[in-house]
Amino acid sequence: MNPYRLLLHVDRLSMRFGGLMAIDDLSFDVHAGRITAVIGPNGAGKTTFFNCLTGFYRPTAGRVCLHHPQRGVLDLETLESHQVASQAQVVRTFQNVRLFPKMTVLENLIVAQHNRLQQASRFSLAGLIGLPGYRRAEAQAIEVAVDRLKRLNLIERADSVAGDLPYGMQRRIEIARALCVDPILLCLDEPAAGLNPRESAELNELLQSLVRDEGLAILLIEHDMNVVMNVSDHICVLNYGRKIAEGSPAEIRNNPHVIKAYLGEEEEDEDGAMKFPAESVP
Amino acid sequence: MALALQQLINGLTLGAVYGLIAIGYTMVYGIIGMINFAHGDIYMVSAFIAVTAFTLLASLGISSVPLALLTVLVMSVLFTSVYGWAVERTAYRPLRGSTRLAPLISAIGMSIFLQNMVQLTQGARVKPIPPVLVGGFDLLTVDGFTVHLAYSQLLIIVVTVALMTAFSYVIGRTSFGRQQRACEQDRTMTALLGINVDRTISLTFMLGAMLAAVAGVLVTVYYGVVDFYIGFVAGIKAFTAAVLGGIGSLPGAMLGGLLIGLIEAFWAAYLSPEYKDVATFSILILVLMFRPSGLLGRPEVEKV
């Protein structure tokens, strides 16, 4: 039925904070080579879901199973933050830019390849005396980083201090850095926030090319409906922690529950459905 | 003139030692934002390990000075790094994510614990070692005053310069250094890139302890005596050095160490030796009042 391999299976996930059900019995699937968007009004539990995925929160109930092509099924909710990246190869970004501001762009990208380097460097001792094995690993890391920067048109900024660059550029560097971890699933939390229309169009292209050319899966939280409707293959809509709809962009666009969640309960007005995609809901 | 030169040598020696200890303060502050008040006592423990090792080697009949020095240095560095690791693991890691004050109080507790442990197990009396490095160069004589550079002083300065160079390389260019700086700037993000933050913090503590251990061995060779209380004064002075240089800044810690050493030496020679500690701590107060970010630290700019 579905030609894309199952990558992430969210199984009846719940996250409760005291009396608040931030995520309530959420189940859905993410497939390799596809862009899956998670949307919903503010406070719907989208970021909480990402936090459950990446080891910040221990879910109250349910499982998040990653079907890793080499390592079998991994329960993401039981892994530490750093294992989510190093073992499960799931990498996320945040709503705000979180580059290492005092490092150069290139260093930011090399830090992300730390695990390979660490193995070669044997607790820095080999690095200190400059053994050939470590030098080779480091040269390789630089090559990977340079390659990423070239493809994202950032190469002339490689030696700039990351914190001094314009905002839109920093967002792209963040994605480049995430890619240096060599992820199989990339979780982006509002990557289009604060981007101008041109930058956001570039982002659309970038996301699509990553999925098309590298077979990555992308899980996307986004408020910008232009981005969501243009790039997503599959959309999951949350409201008050519950999944209220799931489907293709066309299905979601016309789903009465979704329209109600976004625009509030008005008199049943058939035109409301048409208004929503064009306006990019805040 | 001759006195000034002599005090310059003495001040640089002292400053090198403060600098080595100050790096431990500044690195730990950089990575977890706390002042490790037990760091001075880690230095004291390393000096005791050095004394034990020297005694052991003497009883084994090893008389080659370079061999003895090297063995003691390696032993002290290894054992002290284990202390550094254990202190972080038992006193600070369980409190991570707690209030800012909790690890600070825990650090003071750890400091008292280490002092008492050494006092109880090693005795409260001053422990001497037989002189290891005697003699030195007479550089010049002016009006009957001879400027003297002891071998042990030369050793301290040379070792410190070598160590600082290697250390700057480790932090600036190796994988561990990048990982350490990444943790310093954003621990959460570092973890999400697959780096084990807890291990990086442990390694940072071990590295700080190793540098303090080198300082401990060198001071033991230089002065020839240790007691369980040396960590307190040296620790506070190194802390002052770190604050003066700008806490969190590595070159700042080295610079601050040198300045504190020089100020102390010159104050003792020209003003009054009794009040040299007062001078140091006045600097601490003045820096905290008028330039809390230190000489090389960047002031925190609050973005709105």
How would you describe this structure to a colleague?
The complex is a heterodimer of chains A (282) and B (304). With 282 residues, chain A is an alpha/beta fold. Chain A has twelve helices and ten strands. Chain A has two domains: 1-89 and 183-282, P-loop containing nucleotide triphosphate hydrolases (Rossmann fold, 3-Layer(aba) Sandwich); 98-182, P-loop containing nucleotide triphosphate hydrolases (Rossmann fold). In chain A, strand 1 (6-17) and strand 2 (20-31) form a beta hairpin. Chain B has a domain at 19-228. Helix content of chain B is 73%, strand content 6%. Chain B has eleven helices and four strands; from the N terminus they run ααααβββααααβααα. Chain B has helices at 2-32, 39-60, 65-92, 101-122, 151-173, 175-185, 187-192, 197-223, 230-245, 250-270, 276-290; strands at 127-128, 136-142, 145-150, 225-226. In chain B, strands 1-4 form a two-stranded antiparallel sheet. Chain B has a two-stranded antiparallel ribbon with strand order 2-3. Chain B starts with a helix and ends in a 14-residue tail after the last helix. The interface between A and B is medium-sized, with 36 and 25 residues.
